[in-house]
Structure formats: structure tokens, C-alpha cells
Amino acid sequence: MTEQTPQHEDNVYDSNPSGNPEFRSLFDQKISRRNLITKSAGGAVALTLATTLVGCGSDDNDNVTGTLPPEVDKQPLPKALTFKPVEKNTLNAFTVPEGYEARVLFALGDPINTAYAEWDDQNIASGPSFAMRSGDNHDGMSFFGLDQAKGRYDAQVSDQGLLVLNHEYINQKHLHPIPNTTRDLIRSEDEVIREVNCHGVSVIHVIKDPKTQEVKINKSSPFSRRITAASRIEFSGPVKGHALVKTKTSPDGSFTLGTHNNCGNGYTPWGTYLTTEENFDGYLARNADDNRQDLVENALTRYKIDKGQSAQYKWNTPKASFLNQDMYDRWNTSITADKAEKDYRNSANCFGWIVEIDPFDGRQDPVKRTALGRFAHEDCRSSRAIQGQQLAFYMGDDSTGEYIYKFVSDAKWDAKDVNGGYRAGDKYMNAGKLYVAKFNFDEATQKAHGEWVELTINNSRISAYDKYKFADQADVLIHTRLAADAVGATKMDRPEWCAVNPTNGEVYITLTNNSNRGKSYATDAANPRNYFDQDSGKTDLKGNINGHIIRLRESENQTTATKFEWDIFLFGAEQDSLPNVNLSGLTDANDFSSPDGMWFDPRGVLWIQTDDGAYTDETNCMMLAALPGQVGDGSVAKAKSGDQSQVTVQGATLNDSKLRRFLTGPSGCEITGVTMTPDYKAIFVNVQHPGGEWPSNHPKALNASLGKGTRPRSATVVITRKDGKIIVGEDLEQVKKA
Ligand code: FEO
Ligand code: CA
Ligand code: CA
Asked: What is the pLDDT of residues 298-329, one digit of tens each?
């Protein structure tokens, strides 16, 4: 792939006064990539890490058969959770249950290659060097087993794998040598390059000792690489080449530069990673005199690209002497020339997509899969892969009052496509139908049901919509939110992650919270709560403060269904809140607030993570384990909706043997991103934006990381059992003993 952010020998902007040897030593070191200086498509001189490798990469893609993931995992599902639940706390530490241990694996700034020095926060490395270091704000993450002989995916391998993770955004004040320069009206190139490189995705090669279960990073691996907010990404699917994605960088609209604000994630049945572009709007400036037609202005406003807005990190401001000026100009999405091919008026349309990355193929650029629509993508989860059936991908748009979507492939799943890389992506993700969800409740029958409405230009509600004139189906995909508005989709309490239950195919979606529910959005059966916090002392905590998790079962369990049944699996709440708020009967062992990250492991344990600001006076963010039942196993309930009640349908109450707190993060953090090795002996989670000084950099300290210094750093943590056994497998061990 082509890195547009340079690794340049004449790094005049290297602000590391130590004379950091990183660039020179990279060239000197014998690593198995070909390192080339090339003139990039953007005109910038760049070090291209041509990732064609001996024995790996996509050269052998013609033979795509690999080890197939089993349709039903052989590892039995525990009947109960028997680890001792972690207590709520506000410690500046990462806490796991007794018998487990946690280690920091990969923190902000850690090098992915031995040619680069370890982190030292008294000597922050140059901006360009962060193209070979961990980015910031670790988020969604997936593990892919590595068949070392073939250099390809093997869903059964645990001891060698590629861990792929998102870097959502940055904490500017901890990132630079001199923090207050971020306030400058014209940003320095070095800082902007560091920030651009701290976004995107890391691919790191991890090795797990089969005896001790200890996990380490292989920093000599040719697979380790970064994709950043400057990497070249291809467009694919219906929007490729469309007039609305033509830019000065790519006048034919075939590609764009960068992926950023990568939040939740997903993975495909053929062994590739899906990253998401969430709050891309905040990165773009727009001139105050950027006048557009009224309906175009409507569309820009709907995507929060307002006239006169400045970009939060001001990446559009540097005066280039090191890079090409276009690398900065592209962050201003205004009309500045006589046609789109000469300016960046369409920059905003180049973001907000699902991006497919083949971790095993560094030769081909990642791909924006435009058939899946454009919005603040939070997560993208595949349905179960069943031979001969079409695949569905479930997605949330994380903003207040936004929608839940699914994409259904035209192609039917064929397990021979495992290891098919981007070619399989073309087959399953370029042609299909995009739907948006409507949630209904039938008062007469007291049943909760819903429908998927296809977003197609052939629907007259879309083609004749009065707030935006869609040119064609590609325009429907570029302006997905407006098409969903046109068909009257249900406004949800911030749809975040989606998870698919491997045992029955049901789909779970976290709705993290909505302070406006009951104010600008009336409660409804699917978003039923509006209340205030009784003990925080804060008067602004109202609406759906603690969030909930909704789930649905497709009609006749078909991915292609246009009807579904639903219920609310869990309501977040403080354990001592009113019964019509704490509807799920949460206790001290499992109460939580603001569910966000969520994933079913392949045996069927559901992992729930929180990104909370409401319960943090009493506890840090956390991850819980759950053993869910199924849609319809509960009853009709009445939720607190201001002074009234709102009828809804909730799932069966889980006692604390089916829902338990597994870990808590250090103070100030969000817990996000979760994946495991296929043998269930190591689980990875991310600590995003920790407060205090976590992780300690003293080698003997709890949760120590490599490097020196005291700046807090986002990090990937790996958790294993001290006895090396299966994570939350204790119940089954007891059964065996009995
Ligand atoms: Fe990036 Fe919606 O959290
Ligand atoms: Ca409270
Ligand atoms: Ca999130």
C-alpha cells in the first residue's frame, strides 16, 4: 500500500531533540519489506513500504481455500459464570477477577518495528515516525489466526496471529513535545503529521506461548503495518467514480486518502477486517462563504458539515514545506476552484464509510465498501456465515436519534471464499441491498415487531423526497441518512456496536444513552426510558441516562428477511435506582451504564463494554460477561418516561450467574474493543483515553507498559488465567471434576 504521510530522511520537523535514529536505522536494518522512496500520487515524497513479502501477501491468492471456521464452535458454552465478579471502583488501575492477570501489550507510541526506539515521553518521537508506531485511542479490534507456512488466515490458530485494531482519535495534550502549540492558528507540520498518523488502524503480529499463554508482539514481522488518515484507500462498489467523490487528489473518484475516527469494527467470514469511519465531520473545515444550492446545504447540514465550521484539529492549516500542500488543503471541504476535480468540495463525501482491510495482504490498498452506505459508522457485524445463504452486515449510526442499518449481499456464502481477500470482498460487499430499521409495538397484541425498509432510488418516498434530490442510487448511498429520513426510520438512542449470537443468529445492538429522550425525542417502545439521576448531584443527567441493549430475530431466521421481532435485552442502570428504571434488576455484581462495545465470542459468551460519564462518580468503565437467552424470553414491561410510563418488551431477567462484571479499567478511561484467541485462553481489550498516569511505565508495576514517562496512554491489554485455562470456563471445569 502507498503511505502518503512520509517517512523522510530530511526530517526537518523532527521535534525529538535526541537525534532519534529511527529513520536512518530503518533504512539500515535488514527487514524483509522492500523500502522505497517514491513520488506518491498526492505528489508528496514518501517512503513507500511496499509490503510484498516472500511467502506472504496475496501472490498466492488464486488458491483461496483455507481452514474453514466451524459453523458451530466446538468449545461448549458455560452454563453459568462462576468467576468472582470485579467490584465497582474508581482506582487508577486495571482490575480483573481473582485468578486472572492483565498485561499491557501495545500502548500509544509503541513501535511496531525494532528499528524504532521505545516510547519515552520526555522525548516524543517525530510525527512521521508515528506511521510505524501505535496510534492513539485504541478502539475496535479483531484477532486473526495466522497460518505461518502459507502467510494466510487460519481461524483455528491461537499461537500466531494478526491483531488488528482501530485508533479512533487523539488526546492532543498528551501527544506532543510542547502541548500548548495545538492552540496555534496555523499548526506545525510535524504535529499535524503525528496526529494524522495516530489515526487509522494498526496490524500487529502477536505470538502466544502455548504453555504460559503469555502474549508478545513480534516486532520483526513483515505483517506489522499501519494504515493512517493519509493512506491511499480505494473506492469500490456503486459510488466508485461518482461525481460526488471526485477530488483534486483523485479526479476520477476512484480512491481517496485516509481513514479516520475508526471506532467499532467487524470481520468477514473470509478473514478480513472491517473498520468504521464515525465522527468524520469534525475533521473538516468549511469556509463561511462556501455557498451551495439549498438542497445540497440541507445534505451538508444533515452530516454536520456546517458553513463556516472550523476543523477540530486544524489539519487544514499548515503551510507546507515538507509535504505537498494538498495534504492539508484536503481537510477543507469548500468550493475553491471552477470544478470538483480541482478542489476538495467533495472531501466530506470521501469519509463515513466501512473500510475493508485484508491484514494478510499489505500489497493492495484497503477498500471503502460504498454499498454499505455513508453515515457515522460505529460497528459492522456479519451475520453467521451459512453455506448457500446470503450474508447480512449489521451497522449502527452513532449520533443522537440516528438509525440501525443492515446490508444484505446478493451473493450467497460459499466457504471456498475463506482467504479470498479483497476479491471475496468485491463479491459479497459490492452488490446487495441496504436497509434501515423501523421498530414497532402493537398495542392490541402487545407484540414487538419491526421492518427493514430498503433504501432504493426506486422507492418514491426517496426519489420524490423534498429535502434532497437524489441523482441516482449511488447518491442514496452517499446520503444514506437523508434516504432513511425519507422512509421514516426509527430514531434510536445512539446505536453503537452490533453483535450476532452464534448460537441462534439473533442481533444485539447497544444504544448507549440519549440525554434528549423525552425532550426532543418522545419515548417509544424501543427507546422507552426518560428519567433523571437521583444521586449524582448533576442536574443535567436526564433522558435515557444509562442506555440499553436491544436485540432482534429476523423473520424465519433469514438474513434476507424484511420483518423481525425484537425485545430489550438489558437496561443499563444503577442497582439502587427505581424499579421502572432498573428494569433488568441489576445488582452490585453487574450494574453498568452506557453500553457501547459488544461482541459475541464464537462459543456464545456476550461481552459488554461501557463508555460512560453518568455512573463514573461511583465506578470506572468496565466489561461484563453475559449468557443471554433469546428474543421473547421476557415480558411486557412499563418503563419510567418522565411522570408517565412507556410500554415496552424486555428480555428475561438475568441473575448474576448470567451477567457479571469481568473487569474495570483505570479512572477516566473507556473500555472498548474485545477479541480472543480461538482457544479462548487470551482475551484482548482496549483502554481508551485513561486518566491519571496509567499505564505505569515502571517495569515492576501493575499493568506496566514498555517505555518511559508518566503521560497517560491508551493501550491494548491482554488478559489470561494464571493457570492458563479457558477464559470464563470455570463452570465447565467444575462439571468435569464432579
Ligand atoms: Fe466512537 Fe460511538 O463511539
Ligand atoms: Ca448516579
Ligand atoms: Ca464506541
From this structure: 999 999 999 999 999 999 999 999 899 999 99
Contacts of 316 (CB under 8 A, 6+ apart): 284, 285, 328, 329, 330, 331, 332
Q: E-strand spans in 148-239?
A: 152-153, 160-167, 200-208, 215-217, 225-227, 232-236
Q: What confidence category does residue 699 fall into, taking pLDDT thresholds of 50, 70 and 90?
A: low
State percent of the chain over pLDDT 90.
83
Q: Cβ(202)–Cβ(134) under 8 Å?
A: yes
Name the residue with higher pLDDT: 1 or 578: 578
Burial level of 71, CB count in 10 A (0-12/13-18/19+)? exposed
Judge whether residue 241 has pLDDT over 70: yes
- Per DSSP, the three-state class of 631 is coil
> What stretch of H or E contains 570?
strand 563-571
In this structure, the residue with its CA closest to atom 3 of ligand 1 is 263
Q: Is the pLDDT of residue 14 over 80?
A: no
Asked if residue 105 has its Cβ within 6 Å of ligand 1, the reply is: no
Task: Output the CA 169–ligand 3 centroid distance in Å.
Answer: 11
Which tens digit of pLDDT belongs to each residue from 192-237? Answer: 999 999 999 999 999 999 999 999 999 999 999 999 999 999 999 9
pLDDT reported for residue 700: 58
Q: Which of 242, 259, 263 is nearest to 251 (CA)?
A: 242
Q: What is the pLDDT of residue 639?
A: 98
Residue tagged 488526546 (cell numbers): 171
pLDDT for the residue 51:
28
Tell me, letter by letter, the H, E, C secondary structure of 109-155: CCECCCCCCCCECCCCCCCHHHHHECCCCEEEEEEEEEECCCCEEEC
Amino acid at 622: M
Centroid of chain to Cα 169 = 11
Indicate which atom in ligand 1 lies nearest the CA of residue 168. Answer: 1
For residue 536, how far is its CA from the centre of ligand 2 (angstroms)?
A: 4
pLDDT of residue 1: 38
DSSP 384-441: P--TTSEEEEEEEE-SEEE-EEEEEEEEEP-GGGTT-HHHHHHHHHSSEEEEEEEEEE
Q: In this structure, which residue's CA is closest to atom 1 in ligand 1?
A: 263
Report yes or no: 208 and 159 within 8 Å, Cβ to Cβ.
yes
Residues with CB under 5 A from ligand 3 (ion): 263, 596
pLDDT of amino acid 388: 97
Q: How many whole angstroms from its chain centre is CA 481?
A: 19
Distance set, CA 558 to CA 344, 388, 392, 456, 507 (Å)? 42, 12, 9, 21, 12
Please tell me the distance from the alpha carbon of residue 286 to that of residue 292, in angstroms, as a whole number.
12
- The b-or-e profile of 516-531 (16+ CB within 10 A means b, else e) is bbbeebebbbbbbbbb
C-alpha distances in Å from residue 367, one per residue of 74, 80, 240, 254, 278: 33, 41, 10, 10, 16
DSSP structure class, residue 696: P
From CA 54, how far away is CA 151, in angstroms rounded?
9
Strand runs labelled E in 300-417: 354-357, 367-369, 377-382, 390-397, 400-402, 404-412
- Separation of alpha carbons 372 and 379, rounded Å: 12
Cβ-based neighbour number of residue 540 at 10 Å: 10
Place of cell 463514573: 616
